[in-house]
């Protein structure tokens, strides 16, 4: 079943309280102004009788409403904040720069406010994001056969120990523990939603995660333990394949993934992951829906745990699972990414049905 919108009063209460639970899933259209908004819009709240709620931007536009110029419902929430935009633009222009709180102040911004904004939208602070961006440059240098000292300098670190410490924090191990003859190899893939780390062997993809996910170091350690293999830099054919398929996915040219997968989980967990892959593009399910689908209607909590244990993002679409009340619920890659993925797939599905 598709997302079931709550009743009018529940949504109106969410609008008054600026509740972000339905952001990206429900929009309010105001009859008196002809404008549609996010439920978190800072504008003065309209009367209940003037509100009409829709589940997609397309429905709002089809009904004759125009997008609000205060909350920008056509863009993900994180992209509408000028502080975020300002810092992300600066980081993109100079990814190797060593940012500190003084630099944030020089941009006319309050460090504590910026910290809260980035934590809410991305799950990490801006300074952590900048540090990981620098690490990525070092990662690519080593992947291309470069020397450790060159990787350290490319990443903007003044000492080898600082580089090793930062690298270990991101990937759970120091560069010295990556071996050239490893059966598993890790490489970086750029996507419109940020960099991802892909790990594969010669025959299958073992892991695909956003590089800024907090759990990434733990997942890599778990993968090494399960496979009893070291991890190396570089890529095999499955990484090339998933990079091409992700590119087609984000360009709305392809929604199905055919890359072979190595699934590390219990039979129950793999059963849940298969159910996730059976959710049609453009649709969502709740945890209880999945539990019923696999014949375990009382296993909602176990389904949620299996969903969270997924190590192959997007391909195994755990982003299509939402709360029973319609809220986006948690997502390891960040709720803003979950919203983006759902919007992309909903748009593609709507176009295919026309």
Search tags:
single chain; 354 residues; DNA Methylphosphotriester Repair Domain; Arc Repressor Mutant, subunit A; 11% strand
Under the CATH scheme, which architecture of the largest domain would be assigned?
Answer: Orthogonal Bundle
User: Helical element count?
Assistant: 14
Q: Name the helix and strand elements from N-terminus to C-terminus, one letter apiece.
A: HEEEHEHHHHHHEEEHEHHEHHEH
Number of domains: 3
CATH C-level name of the largest domain: Mainly Alpha
Biggest sheet record = 4 strands, mixed
Radius of gyration computed on alpha carbons: 22 Å
Strand content: 5-15%
**Spatial order of the strands in the main sheet?**
3-1-2-4
- Summing up helix and strand content along with how strands pair, one would put the structural category as alpha/beta
Low-confidence stretches: none
- Helix share bin: 40-55%
Termini distance?
Answer: 20 Å
What's the arrangement of secondary structure elements?
Layout lengths: L7 H9 L10 E4 L4 E4 L12 E4 L2 H6 L3 E2 L14 H12 L7 H6 L4 H12 L3 H18 L4 H7 L5 H12 L12 E6 L6 E5 L4 E6 L5 H12 L3 E3 L3 H14 L16 H11 L7 E2 H7 L6 H9 L12 E2 L12 H19 L1
Parallel strand pairs: 2-4, 5-8, 9-10
Antiparallel strand pairs: 1-2, 1-3, 5-6, 6-7
Helix pairs in contact: 6-7, 6-8, 8-9, 12-13
Catalytic activity: a 4-O-methyl-thymidine in DNA + L-cysteinyl-[protein] = a thymidine in DNA + S-methyl-L-cysteinyl-[protein]; a 6-O-methyl-2'-deoxyguanosine in DNA + L-cysteinyl-[protein] = S-methyl-L-cysteinyl-[protein] + a 2'-deoxyguanosine in DNA
Pfam family, one: DNA_binding_1
Keywords: Activator, DNA damage, DNA repair, Methyltransferase, Transferase
